[in-house]
Write a structure and sequence with these properties.
The complex is a heterodimer of chains A (180) and B (293). Chain A has 180 residues and is α+β, with helices and mostly antiparallel strands. Chain A is 29% helix and 23% strand. Chain A has 2 domains: 69 residues, Alpha-Beta Plaits, CATH 3.30.70; 80 residues, Enolase-like, domain 1, CATH 3.30.390. In chain B, α1 crosses α8, α2 packs parallel to α3 and α8 crosses α9. The chains are: A alpha+beta (180), B alpha/beta (293).
């Protein structure tokens, strides 16, 4: 489409912070993440989140898994990636299980993964709403649980992270370490 | 005009605007091929099946390729911000996009400049962004599932991954309590269609209807069956139904199509969508008074 109009610069509202213990790490992280295409902003962290460094990076919190992957690949030290809003609950690491007889559905937050109990094949994924989810759906379906690509490795968002939690729990159940 | 905006899991798909048509198992818009799979593709397919049955103008779609890095999502937001007043759709449905609070805020402002404000529907991460930015009351319809209504009810959460554990564990029977919290915290659109074992249709805090039959529990496992409900709601509002009636009929039609497909958890959403014409033929005129012309 050749009809994009010139627009004003957008204010950024990310909802998340990357915290550092050293200013140099914050500067390196900004460079690495900007190069990788992420929208972000250097900010002063609020007092309740300060970890010894006067600089933090405001990020789109939904992009936490992709951002952590870039920082780890580039060997950039950071303390944590955290929600900006005080009072936000911890990241859910909890799953619920529904037994459909021949199949088991594992649900983690907004994501669900269903596998065949006998073969360990992933037969469906559902839920979520981030743009990597339909991509992950096509990448995971019909794959054995233990040979499927990990959503945390090829996805970019919190939805992908929740799907990864569901996959983890599914593998544990399939290996008989936990009753469905 | 009905306009559906969302990403497609194909990196190479450019920003594309056009009226959509079906071609076998694919959707075609402005010469671009869109797969009918979980996500925006399933939603568009359900809306298109409805408009075809009712002999209405086909949906226009604004889609772009995005597998999670957000580039296509931002192209969609920015195109809408710049052009929504000119497009002036009657119904605008936002679907799978990387949630961006600032761009969602700008889009709501731009929608307010339309000659007639469009009916605004959001599902998937577009709903997450609207809620996280405190813009939920600007929207006419949200279509959350059970985990997502817990997210809308949690005043602090900016994504369902951060909902309070006790809200996540809440049974569907407690949905009315979560709904009340969502409205109290400005986390709800005017109308909510909460999808679950019981579908709740709620208008500004009042339960207008519940739908429980037919009961097809395995549909929860099938990727895209929530997307199809949103597509149906969008098309039924475009056909002129009041939002609460559109939502109620969408919930019933989706369940009925599920039952006809005799699904297992391994069923693909395209098999459910293929049953909509039969459901419409048998029930739609009777349920809604909206009949093909």
């Amino acid at each position: 489409m050749a009809f994009m109009k010139r627009r004003q610069k957008t204010a950024f509202e990310g909802g998340g912070l990357v915290l550092f213990s050293e200013v140099t790490d914050a500067m390196r992280a900004e460079k690495a993440l900007s190069k990788a295409g992420y929208t972000l902003k250097l900010v002063a962290p609020p007092p309740h989140l300060r970890k010894g460094c006067d600089l933090a990076l405001e990020i789109n919190l939904v992009e936490k898994p992709g951002i952590e992957r870039v920082l780890e690949e580039r060997d950039v030290n950071y303390v944590s990636v955290t929600p900006l809003k005080a009072g936000t609950s911890r990241l859910l690491e909890f799953a619920t299980v529904t037994d459909f007889g021949k199949w088991v559905m594992v649900k983690s937050a907004n994501m669900k993964l269903t596998f065949d109990k006998e073969t360990g094949t992933i037969v469906n994924t559902s839920g979520g709403g981030c743009p990597d989810i339909p991509f992950l759906h096509s990448e995971l379906i019909d794959k054995p649980l233990n040979r499927a690509p990990r959503p945390r490795d090829i996805g970019f968002t919190l939805c992908a992270l929740m799907l990864d939690n569901a996959l983890d729990e599914s593998i544990t159940i399939y290996q008989g370490e936990k009753e469905p | 005009m009905m306009l559906i905006a969302g990403t497609i899991p194909n990196k190479d798909l450019p920003l594309t605007l056009g009226e959509v048509r079906s071609d076998g198992e694919l959707l075609i818009a402005d010469g671009q091929r869109i797969p009918c799979t979980q996500g925006t593709g399933a939603m568009i397919s359900a809306a298109l099946t409805t408009t075809e049955y009712l002999n209405l103008e086909a949906p226009r779609v604004l889609v772009a390729g995005d597998t999670g890095q957000g580039k296509g999502s931002r192209e969609i937001y920015r195109y809408l911000i710049d052009n929504i007043a000119e497009l002036s759709p009657e119904v605008l449905a936002l679907h799978y996009c990387l949630p961006d609070m600032a761009l969602t805020r700008q889009l709501c402002q731009a929608a307010g400049k339309c000659a007639k404000r469009p009916l605004l529907i959001a599902d998937a991460a577009s709903m997450y962004a609207a809620k996280a930015a405190g813009l939920a009351p600007e929207f006419d319809i949200f279509t959350p599932d059970a985990a997502e209504i817990a997210f809308l009810a949690d005043a602090e959460a900016t994504h369902p991954a951060y909902i309070n554990r006790h809200l996540f564990e809440t049974n569907i029977a407690r949905t009315p309590g979560l709904v009340s919290a969502a409205y109290r915290n400005n986390g709800a659109a005017h109308l909510l269609l909460v999808k679950g074992a019981t579908d709740y249709i709620i208008n500004d805090g009042d339960i207008m209807a519940t739908v429980t039959e037919p009961d097809v529990p395995v549909m929860e496992a099938i990727g895209g069956t929530g997307d199809t409900i949103t597509g149906l709601v969008t098309a039924f509002t475009f056909a002129g139904l009041e939002p609460h009636r559109a939502a109620t009929i969408a919930a019933r039609a989706n369940r009925m199509a599920g039952e006809l497909a005799r699904p297992t958890p391994a069923t693909r959403v395209s098999e459910i969508i293929a049953r909509f014409p039969a459901v419409f033929r048998n029930y739609l005129c009777q349920w809604s008074g909206v009949c093909p012309t």
